[in-house]
Amino acid sequence: MKYCKECGVYCHRGLKRCPLCGSFLESEREAPDALKKYHTEIELSVSYPPVEYEDQTDKTRMRYRAFTLLLATIAICFAINFVVTPSSLWSLYVLVGSTILYFCVFSSLFRHSRAYSILATCTVLISVGLFGFDAIQSMDRLGNLSAVGFSVCYAIPGFLIAMIVTFDILIFVGRNTFRYYFISLYIASVSAIIPQIVFWAIPSLDMPSWFTLAAFFFAVFNCVVMTVCYSRRVHHEFVRKFYI
Ligand SMILES: [Zn+2]
Predict the structure, then answer these.
(1) In percent, how much of the chain has pLDDT > 90?
(2) What distance in angstroms lies between residue 13's CA and the mean position of ligand 1's atoms?
(3) 45 C-alpha vs ligand 1 centroid, how far in Å?
(4) How far is CA 135 from CA 3, 189, 202, 210, in A?
(5) pTM listed for this prediction
């Protein structure tokens, strides 16, 4: 029989996750005496009916429509851009903005994603989007990436510090429930240290980087403090999520 370490219950051999808490189940375990009869005689003939999910067709259709609408908008903008104002790349802003809109807003609305995964996706996508806007602006003005700086030096570190503080609050508020916010926190922290690491790795970039430095140390310090303060929770969360 399968066994759930978290709940201390034996489960049907066909299950992958515990029906009570959702953790991955331990592989086959010797059934205790009280369950021997069930294990050897009954369990073999037990089968569960396929799980009925709520009707998703409406949501899928809405998501498909939103996707088509955004795609049409992007196509029209590209067409107008290249026919009327070929000297500017403004339609790329529409492309980046629409990508963020689709994955951060429409996907969260029309899918059954958990809060932590929506927030983690938004954190990464908006950071990349901010850099994208900056890069487009630089390409538009100078034809190269030499004017990229504002996003990496100020906008992205500022945004990520705000997200890290948000995840800290969520972890503190929801400390008695399992919401996997540590995973989001680690994703935001790793994203926040990347700009400074890039500056250290490529000294020739020569950008004013006090804010990225602040973000770097804040992310590392915050991560260490949170992990130490909530070490049992972190362990629990990773066991439940990844079975490690
Ligand atoms: Zn369980």
Answers:
(1) 34
(2) 14
(3) 23
(4) 52, 23, 18, 21
(5) 0.71
